[in-house]
Write a structure and sequence with these properties.
Blueprint lengths: L2 H31 L7 H17 L5 H13 L3 H29 L7 H24 L1 H11 L4 H23 L1 H26 L3 H9 L6 H6 L3 H28 L3 H4 L23 H13 L4 H8 L5 E6 L6 E7 L2 E9 L1 H15 L9 E7 L2 E7 L5 E2 H5 L4 H21 L7 H22 L8 E4 L2 E4 L1 H6 L4 H5 L17 E3 L7 E3 L12 H13 L1 H6 L4 E3 L2 E3 L6 H44 L1 H22 L3
Parallel strand pairs: 7-12
Antiparallel strand pairs: 1-2, 2-3, 3-5, 4-5, 6-9, 7-8, 9-10, 11-12
Helix pairs in contact: 1-2, 1-8, 1-11, 2-3, 2-11, 3-4, 4-5, 4-7, 5-7, 6-13, 7-13, 17-23, 18-23, 21-23, 23-24
């Protein structure tokens, strides 16, 4: 046979084996890509072939970046995650190359190879990849170092760096779940590649060792430039060898368009979805919006330590976060999707976790006494606690109902709530609270909180009076209200009962599907004094000064004893406040309404220090509200 034909056939055989090796590599790569959607084999093959072409001409394997960018752009995938899969895949390849060098050297196939240099390179790169993945997952200090390094770039590049770093352990987790297939496909791939290199070395006339090292062992020098030293003919054949798979894929694309045969259909037997039942959820898939995931990465790498970051680290699980809600407590509330089911998840840690647990038990215990939200799941995680509530797509916050429906519809719901609470109080009436309970209530809720308020903003108490939204308030009235005997001597109704404890407008949801047309959420359990009047006072807390609107928009100005802030109580709230106080006057009497107003002031004493912990502006706004309520109470009930 003509040697030239032998050489040509050898080149064709080498190319065929190379294409088969690339196909197996794409299948192996697909195992790592399934977290971001169904892999596209043809796109992956084209991206891989493009990388080989560029690596032949560019140093440092820069073609791999182009491979990731091309695949991510064509499939609209997460670029950072795609690049992380390439880093992991190349780490596996380097490990395999190192093993092959050791085997070939021991077998005498390779000579004059610096095995220790290869070993050092493999340990440095492969060990660096795996160690980085472990440190990103487990070391806050290392994450902060990555954050600092990424911060020198613009926000878009920084996000890609952080996303890629966080994706690295997730890719390795996916690889560990698929390790049997990865090892099997890797072995098949390298067998095909080695046979291809052997055929090419004979066709080109280049030593097998030289060819292997040119392709896999000289990242600082492009392969084409290295073989150019051997002669133009050999370099041209290597160029053909490198470019041919890329050209074949382009040709295949045209062929597919013409006759409708797809690569996926030809190899669908290896892409059986049941082979991937061990898929692990990646962090990006746990957030419905890119902004949420971006915030997660910023908090995770910057070392932020707050309730949101703790929730993201410990309480999301396999759920997808759809939305996070602003709340007025130490618990975090989020809408999550578990499978096909939407839920409202509440989460707290430390002492707040204990309160949340008690809240969960209260809802479970009194589900037959009142229309309450249904608990679907709960979990304690060390010092943390969470529970899931059912999500009703037909329910709406009563605040929204009040401001989007006629006042009569809102009042019907509110009146029904008041009547239901009164009936619950009657059914569960307990023994009257003793003097020690009332004294503790006044001491902790009023006197203790006044000291906290004074410590939070002492400048406010320098003068005798302060002008709050144009109303002159006597600062001394706060001290007088907090005096040892003031509250205790004015509490005459000392009966106790089962109470909700936080009956504000935001904790009442309207739902036309329910028989009651409403239900309650978020009770406050563990009040010192379980007086039924606390529930009514909580309702006044909402309606009197527009509590819900204050929580939505905190802004104020203070200087020279003058405090101004917007009180956004709407006309609807004003009407409902008038009707609610009329209901209380009718059902509790004038004396009962007076005590409800007393407890309303106590509620604001309790709220204000908490708001100061949230921020100075929030604290000042609620301190202003407290001043207005105290002044009104004294003007109406304590005139001399």
């Amino acid at each position: 046979m003509n040697p030239e034909w032998v050489s040509a056939l050898g080149l064709v055989a080498a190319l065929a084996l190379l294409v088969l090796g690339h196909l197996v590599r794409v299948l192996r790569w697909s195992l790592l890509l399934r977290q971001i959607g169904t892999p596209r084999s043809s796109t992956g093959f084209l991206a891989l072939s493009l990388a080989y072409v560029l690596n032949a001409f560019l140093p440092l394997r820069l073609g791999e970046i182009a491979r990731g960018v091309y695949y991510a752009s064509r499939t609209r995938s997460d670029l950072a995650y795609v690049l992380a899969t390439i880093v992991v895949e190349r780490a596996f390849d380097l490990l395999a190359v190192w093993v092959l060098v050791l085997v070939f050297t021991a077998a005498g196939v390779f000579s004059d190879v610096d095995v220790w240099a290869w070993t050092a390179g493999a340990v440095l790169v492969v060990g660096g990849v795996f160690l980085s993945a472990v440190l990103v997952e487990r070391s806050a200090r290392f994450r902060y170092f990555v954050w600092l390094a990424a911060s020198i770039f613009n926000p878009r590049i920084r996000l890609v760096i952080l996303d890629g770093a966080w994706s690295l352990p997730e890719v390795l987790s996916e690889a560990s779940a698929q390790w049997v297939r990865i090892v099997a496909q890797g072995a098949a791939m390298w067998a095909l590649y080695l046979l291809s290199y052997l055929m090419l070395s004979r066709a080109v006339g280049v030593d097998f060792q030289r060819l292997f090292i040119v392709i896999h062992g000289a990242p600082l020098e492009p392969a084409f430039l290295s073989l150019l030293y051997e002669g133009m003919g050999q370099a041209a054949i290597l160029l053909l060898y490198t470019v041919a798979p890329f050209a074949l894929v382009l040709g295949y694309g045209i062929f597919r368009e013409r006759i409708g045969v797809t690569l996926r259909g030809a190899i669908s037997w290896v892409s059986d979805p049941m082979l991937y039942v061990h898929r692990l959820p990646r962090s990006r898939n746990r957030f419905s919006e890119a902004e949420q995931y971006s915030g997660f990465l910023m908090r995770r790498f910057s070392g932020a330590s707050d309730l949101v970051s703790d929730f993201e680290a410990n309480a999301i699980g396999d759920a997808v976060v759809q939305r996070m809600f602003r709340g007025g407590s130490d618990a975090l509330t989020a809408m999550v999707q578990v499978g096909n089911e939407l839920r409202i998840r509440k989460y707290a840690l430390g002492s707040a976790a204990g309160k949340l647990h008690d809240q969960c038990r209260w809802l479970e215990t009194h589900g037959t006494d009142l229309p309450l939200v249904r608990i679907t799941d709960q979990s304690r995680i060390g010092s943390r606690f969470l529970y899931d509530m059912e999500y009703s797509p037909t329910s709406r916050d009563l605040f929204d109902i009040i401001h989007s429906s006629d006042i009569e519809s809102s009042w019907r719901i509110l009146e029904d709530v008041l009547n239901a609470m009164r009936a619950l109080h009657e059914r569960t009436r307990g023994a009257p609270a003793g003097p020690e309970v009332i004294e503790r209530y006044a001491r902790e809720k009023v006197a203790g909180n006044l000291r906290n308020i004074q410590d939070a903003f002492p400048l406010f108490f320098d003068g005798d009076t302060v002008l709050v939204n144009g109303v002159k308030v006597d600062i001394g009235l706060l001290e007088r209200f907090a005096a040892p005997d003031f509250v205790t001597s004015r509490i005459h109704r000392r009966e106790t009962a089962t109470i909700h404890g936080d009956l504000t407008i935001e904790n009442i949801l309207a739902d036309p599907v329910r028989t009651s047309h409403w239900f309650l959420i978020d009770p406050n359990v563990g009040n010192i004094f379980e007086s039924p009047l606390l529930d009514y006072a909580k309702l006044l807390q909402s309606l009197h000064l527009g509590y819900e609107s204050l929580n939505r928009d905190i802004s104020c100005s203070y200087g020279d004893g003058v405090l101004t802030f917007p009180i956004a109580r709407t006309a609807q709230y004003a009407v409902l406040h008038e009707r609610a106080t009329a209901w209380m006057r009718e059902n509790l009497g004038e004396d009962g309404l007076r005590e409800v107003r007393l407890h309303e002031v106590v509620h604001y004493f309790r709220l204000t220090p908490y708001k100061f912990r949230k921020g100075a502006y929030a604290g000042l706004v609620f301190l202003g509200c407290l001043c207005l309520l105290v002044q009104r109470y004294f003007d109406e009930y304590e005139k001399c």
